[in-house]
# Entry
Amino acid sequence: MTYILDPTDERVPIRRSLSQRPAAITGTVALLDINKARGDVMIDQLKRRLNERLPGVEVKSYRKPTPAKPAPDDVRRRIMEESDFVIEALAD
# Structure
């Protein structure tokens, strides 16, 4: 069972449900590095782990030019066209 904790006022918890999940992960996973310090190190490690655990899944890496702004339209468009799942990651 998965528990999701809401860091806001827990005296009156809000009931939330998970969105529908596929039975299996297939296709392409996009890893988006938001371009913070050492984010590339974490993305590389995550990519290695995903390749080990999901050998039939393609993993592609993308990077924002700056962490201060949303990803440019062309980056978002490429991710949307080329991927089935997205993991956005940062590290400091």
Remarks:
- The beta strands are 28-33, 58-63, 85-89.
- The helical segments are 39-53, 73-82.
